C-alpha cells in the first residue's frame, strides 16, 4: 500500500507526529545534560550508522518505569549495542540484572565496551542469539519484559512474555505507532506485514483482561502493560 496525498481521506504517515516537534525539542533539552558521557557516544554512533535506538526521552521513560516498580530483573528482546540496557541497568541497581538478547556478535562487543565504560556491565547478562530462544532457555519470572525485535514478531513475543511477568510487573514495547502507519488505511511499509503485526500486537494487549495498558506517544510510541495483581 502507498501514501496518497491527493485524497482528502488519506493521511501521509510521514507527517503524523503525535507530539509536536517543538514540544519534543523542549523535552529533549530538559534531559540533554543527564547521565554518563558514554550516552553521547552511543547516540553519535546511532546517527552515523542510522541505527535505531530509543533515544534519550524514551530512555529516561524506561528508567523511570523500572524504578517505579522497583524492577530487579529485566529481559530485553532485542538489545542492539546496549542503549536501552543502559537505562534499565541504571534502574535495577547493583543487585539487579538485565538479560539482553542480540543476534549480532559485533553489537555485543560494542555493548560490553559502552556499558563497561558506564560502570554498568556487571549488571548485564548479554547473550548472543535469537531472543525467543534465549528467553525460552531462561527460567523464572521478570519484573519487566521489553520488546524491540523485528516488528513482524511482535505478536509472538507478547504471547511468549505475558505469562512470565510477575504480578505488578510490566511489558514494554517500542515502535508501536510505527511512524503513524498503524493509524492510517494506506501506507508504505518497511517490510511487508509489519504494520499489521504491530496492530495485532497492540490489540492483543489492550484486550487482555490481565493487563492495564496505555501507549506513551513519545518518539515512535511505547506501549506499557502492567500485569494486574490480586489486591
What features would you describe in this structure?
Helix 5 links the parallel strand 2 and strand 3. This protein is an alpha/beta fold. The radius of gyration is 18 Å and the shape is globular. The longest helix is centred in the first third of the chain and has 14 residues, at 55-68. Strands 3-2-1-4-5-7-6 form a seven-stranded mixed β-sheet, sandwiched between helices. The protein has one domain (13-227): Rossmann fold, CATH 3.40.50.150. It has helices spanning 21-31, 38-49, 55-68, 83-92, 105-117, 131-136, 154-161, 194-206; strands at residues 73-77, 97-102, 124-128, 142-147, 165-174, 211-216, 222-227.
- What general outline do the C-alpha atoms trace? globular
Beta-strand content: 15-25%
| CA gyration radius, whole angstroms | 18 Å
Strand order of the largest sheet: 3-2-1-4-5-7-6
Instruction: Identify the CATH class.
Output: Alpha Beta
Structural class, judged by helices and strands? alpha/beta
If helices are DSSP runs of H or I spanning 4 or more residues, what is the number of helices? 8
Q: List the helices and strands in order.
A: HHHEHEHEHEHEHEE
What is the helix content? 25-40%
Number of domains as seen in the coordinates: 1
Give a quick account of the main beta sheet: strands, pairing sense, barrel closure. 7 strands, mixed
The named CATH superfamily? Vaccinia Virus protein VP39
The chain-level mean pLDDT equals 91
By CATH, the topology is Rossmann fold
The low-confidence parts are 1-12
CATH architecture: 3-Layer(aba) Sandwich
Amino acid at each position: 500500500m502507498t501514501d496518497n496525498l491527493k485524497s482528502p481521506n488519506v493521511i501521509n504517515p510521514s507527517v503524523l507526529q503525535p507530539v509536536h516537534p517543538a514540544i519534543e525539542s523542549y523535552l529533549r533539552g530538559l534531559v540533554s545534560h543527564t547521565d554518563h558521557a558514554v550516552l553521547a557516544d552511543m547516540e553519535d554512533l546511532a546517527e552515523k550508522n542510522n541505527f535505531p535506538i530509543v533515544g534519550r526521552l524514551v530512555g529516561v521513560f524506561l528508567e523511570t518505569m523500572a524504578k517505579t516498580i522497583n524492577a530487579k530483573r529485566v529481559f530485553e528482546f532485542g538489545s542492539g549495542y546496549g542503549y536501552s540496557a543502559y537505562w534499565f541497568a541504571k534502574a535495577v541497581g547493583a543487585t539487579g540484572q538485565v538479560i539482553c538478547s542480540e543476534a549480532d556478535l559485533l553489537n555485543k562487543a560494542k555493548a560490553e565496551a559502552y556499558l563497561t565504560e558506564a560502570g554498568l556491565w556487571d549488571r548485564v547478562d548479554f547473550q548472543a542469539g535469537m531472543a525467543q530462544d534465549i528467553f525460552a532457555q531462561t527460567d523464572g519470572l521478570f519484573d519487566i519484559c521489553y520488546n524491540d525485535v523485528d516488528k513482524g514478531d511482535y505478536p509472538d513475543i507478547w504471547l511468549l512474555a505475558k505469562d512470565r511477568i510477575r504480578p505488578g510487573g510490566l511489558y514494554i514495547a517500542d515502535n508501536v505507532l510505527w511512524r503513524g502507519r498503524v493509524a492510517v488505511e494506506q501506507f508504505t511499509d518497511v517490510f511487508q506485514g509489519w504494520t499489521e503485526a504491530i496492530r495485532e500486537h497492540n490489540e492483543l494487549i489492550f484486550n487482555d483482561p490481565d493487563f492495564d495498558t496505555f501507549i506513551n506517544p513519545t518518539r515512535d510510541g511505547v506501549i506499557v502493560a502492567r500485569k494486574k495483581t490480586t489486591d
